Known about the structure:
Blueprint: H1 4-11, H2 17-42, H3 44-70, H4 81-97, H5 100-108, H6 111-143, H7 145-165, H8 175-184, H9 191-210
InterPro entries: MFS_dom (IPR020846), MFS_sugar_transport-like (IPR005828), MFS_trans_sf (IPR036259), MFS_Trehalose_Transporter (IPR050549)
Protein name: Major facilitator superfamily (MFS) profile domain-containing protein
Domain Major facilitator superfamily (MFS) profile: 1-171
Amino acid sequence: VLYIVNIFAAAKTSISPQLGSIMYAGVHICGCWLSTLMVDKFGRRPLMFLSTLGMAIGYFILGIYFMLQSTLVDVSQFRWLPIIAILLYGSTYSTGAGPLPSVIANEVFNPELASICNTIYVITFGILSFLVMKLFPTFKHAVSLHNVFFGLLVACIVGFVASYFVVPETKGKSIESIRNELQSTGNEVETKEADDIAMDIVTIARLTQSCENK
């Protein structure tokens, strides 16, 4: 978010960077509102699928666009593509990967552990976000902008795969039934091991979420 104006400026889109950032903020707000309406209707896992997939598509388009731009290919006829990609990213992030990790964390952990685990992951998310914001300009100059977006694309793909194979559907389920599902993935998984699986789930979700602060 901190570099959204710079990204619009680098893309040389048909709109001003300031207007682009306002549009992004508007889409982000609308996405958060839609998330509250869809999370209980469609479930957590489908929203995480669509969210990480949409983010990956957005990063892929941006990576291809900036790669062509860096090779001096005339992209003047496609200056609307970065706008679509950034707005797609913002809308899909705010409907899934942004708000859902906290929801899943509260539903996966035991009440006695939820506050402690959430504290750990808030601190982890803060550190990861700081590193992304701090290192983004460095990586931009070291490996070029399109490779930065391709790297973020890989993170989104990992999040998409993890959402399918690791994240359980918690909609309308009690903590006991969720933990039973986690335990059923192994042969008589112990309670402590189920807690470790739950922590891995939220770690992956938080890592995907930290990509927002590019």
